[in-house]
Amino acid sequence: MYEKIIKESTENRELLQTKDKCDKYDYLAAVACGAVGGLVDIFLVGAPGESVLGGWTDAQIDKTVLAFARKVGWKPGEGKENNISSAIGYLERNYKVNYDQRSVSDIGGLNKDKLSGMTTKNHHMKSIAHSPDPVGLFFSILNQFTNTSAFISQGELIYIATDGSGLQGGNFIAKIFCGIANWFGHLMSDVAGSSGAKGRGTGIVMPFYELFGFCTFGKFDVGKDRQDLATIATRAFQNGMDFRFGLAQAIPVVITELVIRLIWAIRRRFQYHMPLRECIPSSQYADFRIMLLLGNGTLCVIDGIDAGIRSGGNMLLLFMRLNLVAWLRLVMLVLKEVCIRVGLGIDLQREIEAYKRINEALQEYLYELKRIDAESFKKETEQYNIVIKIFESAENAEELNKKLFHTYESLKIEKAWQGDFDEHMSDKNGTLEFE
């Protein structure tokens, strides 16, 4: 059993297979999957306001908000069971936060001038605590603890003092928990727009989209104006490029990757007849990583060409037509592959996978231990302990020899020799036979 554990742990030191290479069918399949995703992106995603899938994701978010509101106590009146404005209003009343200033008119103090561009259409992007990501969560807890609001404006992080009752809870842990719950509940009240919005309304940003507020560089053509990237990203958000549209952009990416994973797994299982556990898509296989790169790259190329042609040189239209989710996924895949090629992260992943397999071997070993008769083992060890005490009580070699022979007889152990031990050992033809 010990040898088995050592063997398995050694084998799993080489979990990253560097010899896997794509063949022409892998390349064709990856490009085809990326092309399918690109066509879905062009004809079904497009830009905010004209997206087929965008309308569908808006409806799904509305259903989610309605279901969440019911879970936390919303009791709509007769005929308002599907009234999204009523559900949003309930959540707004029950998940209030101190950092929800909607425009510059809600702000006073020295930093008011720096937030002069904030309106009801973009305050969810400028207020960093409204972001559905770890950055937003951190600033939400910070703002609730310190009664402040944090905004990104003109490329700077700006704080203002606010009035608030502070976090609920009797101790630090309870306050953190209440702060997280309040942050999430408030996001749910904003993700589908406000209760008083006319039409679609402005939701919340995609994860990490708020960081575009720091990108105050570049001068890009937007009609007759030239604007920096932060301004363009803010205008795109005001025109509907929010979390709901981000879900629509994620659909062609998911389609591309799922089909690539399926094709890769089917080929390994049925064409190469590999074990099932080796047909589970994982980044440890180089050919699979290359297929993902090629598929997502194809999707991004098609998306970029379409956005470039339809924008007519207008950077705002180009930005709104680019599938940011697809481009972010491609960047992540490229960075991951670069890290693997230069050796960063390989050892960690290799060790993690190896320890998983070692854990399986240890579990099997534990199962074998459980099958041992503990009572019988205990009785045997008790006898051995008695014998050891007898041996320890011997005062000289002769007495030890007598106790040894007595133990052989009491335990009914067959001796390996016949007759006197000294005579047997003096016979050059004598042998010891152990049973």
Account of the 3D structure:
- With 435 residues, this protein is mainly alpha-helical.
- Helix content is 58%, strand content 4%.
- The chain is built from 16 helices and 4 strands.
- It has helices at 2-11, 24-45, 52-71, 84-94, 123-126, 134-146, 172-190, 229-238, 243-271, 286-311, 315-321, 324-342, 346-370, 374-392, 397-410, 421-426, and strands at residues 148-153, 156-161, 220-222, 225-227.
- The strands form 2 sheets. It has a two-stranded antiparallel ribbon.
- The longest helix has 29 residues, at 243-271.
- The two termini are 24 Å apart.
- Residues 1-19 have low confidence and may be disordered.
Short description:
The protein is mainly alpha-helical.
The succession of helices and strands, N to C, reads HHHHHHEEHEEHHHHHHHHH
Q: From the helix content, strand content and strand pairing, which structural class follows?
A: mainly alpha
Rg, please? 35 Å
Number of strands: 4
Number of helices: 16
The gross shape turns out to be elongated
Strand order of the largest sheet: 1-2
Taken as a percent bin, the fraction of beta residues is under 5%
Helix content: 55-70%
Mean pLDDT across the residues is 85
What about the largest sheet? 2 strands, antiparallel
Unreliable stretches: 1-19
Terminal CA distance: 24 Å
